[in-house]
Automatic annotation (TrEMBL):
Catalytic activity: Hydrolysis of terminal, non-reducing beta-D-glucosyl residues with release of beta-D-glucose
Name recorded for this polypeptide: Beta-glucosidase
The keyword Protein biosynthesis is annotated on this UniProt entry: no
Family: Belongs to the glycosyl hydrolase 1 family.
Cross-referenced Gene3D superfamilies: Glycosidases (3.20.20.80)
Transmembrane spans: none
Amino acid sequence: MPEQRFPDEFVWGAATSAYQIEGATEEDGRGRSIWDTFAAVPGNVKNGDTGAVAADHYHRLGEDLDLMASLGLRGYRFSIAWPRVQPDGAGAVNQAGLDFYRRLVDGLRERGVHPMATLFHWDLPQALQEAGGWENRDTAERFADYAAIMFDALEVRDWLTINEPKTVVDCGYRWGIHAPGVQDEGRAFVALHHLLLAHGRASRVLHEAHPGRRIGPALNLHPTYAAEPFTGADAAVWHQDGLENRLYLDPIFTGAYPEDTLAWIAERSPMPDRILDGDLAVISEPIDVLGVQYYTPHFLDAEGNRVHKHPTAQLDWLEIYPRGLYDTLTRLKYDYPAVPIVITENGVPAPDEVGPDGGVADGERVSFLRDHLAAVHDALAEGVPVEGYYVWSLLDNFEWAEGYDARFGIVHVDYATQRRTPKSSALWYRDLISSGRLA
Ligand code: PNW
């Protein structure tokens, strides 16, 4: 195989999110989030796990920054816990919360690591949930206010608005397996519209207040395919593509919801009535960067049911298919206007893997990352403007409804001692970063 060299300026990064690693949920004036509430209800999260301690990152910031430097990371994507900064989601700012993220950004800069900040990675202030959460249009305004606070407080060039609106809509509101635990399609798509509105409002605020900085959404995209050719699955595949991908990409890039998907939604949700004049102009505020999160494709049988064609990971929703990342990236190039793309998440879970010597040999993760990066390289060769890649995740962490059993980190966390141990994938990644080429 010819050598697969990446551009010198390619940003090799790792990603995390606040609720999944910080812990310290009741310290220094942090308000309550919907994930604190959701995780406290027995049965919602495996083993009754919560983010109360997580990887204790809030108390181990210096150590974790040094860890990033030791791996040679060029980029770090983190999220800001809204309730740390605005405990009630509106009004008064909690200085201690702001200070934590200032220390983080300063620490990254001192170590030459490029920061990428996510404004919302699912930990909505509980007070806003009590006022209707994302079903309440006002939450988008509150989000724009919070975004303005963060834009002024942190010297960060690159911002992401909403992490995976699709997962909020599907897991949080259609299936009820994530906070806020709603199971109602009608309400789900109302929430969707307000999430996109929040994205657009915050993007406008940034453009007006800080020209030169960049912002975009972080979308999980799932290429959809017929599991077998000539089975008549094409209509189902297109419908699924609407729900998974076009429902998010089209309004942001083209200023219109996909008509077929909107018609389907209209049969089950009052969402179309909630679209006011001017909303789509806000939602389609030009983006400067697109965060792409890729984990898995969806193969459908003739009835439109999902089937697996390839091996799955520890979590069975994750069917391993690196070619899907190439297909996703090239599809963006051919179907949508060109913007710089950053892979803001890609990774794989595995059960605890500590060997007898205390080391962690996660060969399957190395293969997964290598194969997906080869797909990124192929997309670069095809002219897709991919600027960087952030592996999910830097650390083992609170994997939402799966709790601590599913470990996505390239660095192992022993939750009893909070000891960090780079896995073989972290050492492999460090070498890749220094050579710039896939061996
Ligand atoms: C993402 N799916 O969520 C999130 O952004 C992370 O916080 C999370 O830890 C990571 O992926 C791993 O799950 C997803 O069902 C959740 O396809 C579900 C899916 C995809 C991504």
